[in-house]
Amino acid sequence: MKTQNDLINPKAKALIFDLDGTLIDSLELNWQAMDKALREQGIEIRREEFIGMTGRSIEEIAQLIVKSKGREDADCDKIVRRKRELANAKADEVEEISTVADVARSAKGRIPMSIGTGSDRHRAELMLTSTGLIGLFDHIVAADDVAKHKPEPDTFLRCAELMGVRPEECQVFEDGDTGIEAAKKAGMMVTDVRLLF
């Protein structure tokens, strides 16, 4: 049976973790908050549509949704604010994904680690604090820290820069197609955590 250490590539000199769906089980919370925020604007989407967009910033997701529904008249800023308000109010209900969180715990103090997320910094810190994971990581790179978000590599490249490690020496743990694409564009090793569950 594989241990958490077995999941770390021997060539990795630093680890980068996505947040939602990778370290914390927040998909349902995010979906419910977004669904309610959209319905308040008279917009309906299927859960599967939302899931297909995860990994991107919430601003980008909102813009993609209103465009796909032909609702450019909708207030994206209001949708984003409401989604954040609803999700943040239930931060204490979010639980860690122990399979991945245990990898970070096993590497703490041995190898630099960062969070690379499409969430805004406030929400990322709130979720990491509520799950007790915040102390494991040296850096957090959130949506507000980069101009281009996943699937572009900027988030992960910034993590590598902050950790002082070359991109090809970083291993990314991700659950989303956009994040996996971003890690590959950055030239990093990548572990699709969906294959671990």
Task: Report on this structure.
There is one protein chain. The mean pLDDT is about 95. The chain has helices spanning about 25-40, 45-50, 60-70, 75-90, 100-105, 120-130, 155-165, 175-185; strands at about 15, 25, 95, 115, 140, 170-175, 190. The strands form two sheets. Strands 5-4-1-6-7 form a five-stranded parallel β-sheet, sandwiched between helices. Strands 2-3 form a two-stranded antiparallel ribbon. The protein has eight helices and seven strands. With about 200 residues, it is an alpha/beta fold.
Radius of gyration: 16 Å
Count of individual helical segments: 8
- The unreliable regions are none
Helical proportion, percent range: 40-55%
Biggest pleated-sheet summary: 5 strands, parallel
Give me the secondary-structure category: alpha/beta
Q: How much of the sequence is in beta strands?
A: 5-15%
Q: Overall 3D geometry?
A: globular
Order of helices and strands: EEHHHHEHEHEHEHE
- The tally of strands reads 7
State the end-to-end CA separation.
14 Å
- Lateral strand order in the biggest sheet: 5-4-1-6-7
Overall average pLDDT: 94
SSE layout:
Layout: E1 14-17, E2 24-25, H1 27-39, H2 47-51, H3 58-68, H4 76-88, E3 95-96, H5 98-107, E4 113-116, H6 121-130, E5 139-141, H7 154-163, E6 170-174, H8 177-185, E7 189-192
Parallel strand pairs: 1-4, 1-6, 4-5, 6-7
Antiparallel strand pairs: 2-3
Helix pairs in contact: 1-4, 3-4
Top keywords for this entry?
single chain, two-stranded antiparallel ribbon, 7 strands, 197 residues, alpha/beta, 8 helices
Brief overview:
The chain has 197 residues and is of the alpha/beta class. The protein has helices at 27-39, 47-51, 58-68, 76-88, 98-107, 121-130, 154-163, 177-185, and strands at residues 14-17, 24-25, 95-96, 113-116, 139-141, 170-174, 189-192.
